[in-house]
Amino acid sequence: MKVFISHSRQDDKIVKIVETEIKDKGHTPYLAEKAISSERMEEKLASNISASNIVLVLWTNNVARRRETRDMVLWEIILGKHLGRKVIVFLDEKLKASPVIEQLVVYNPLNFKNKTEIKKVVRGFISQNLKTDEDIYNEFLELTNKLGSTINAVNEIMKKYGYSEDQLAKLITTMATII
Question: Which residues have a Cβ under 8 Å from the Cβ of 39 and sit 6 or more positions away?
Answer without folding.
Answer: none
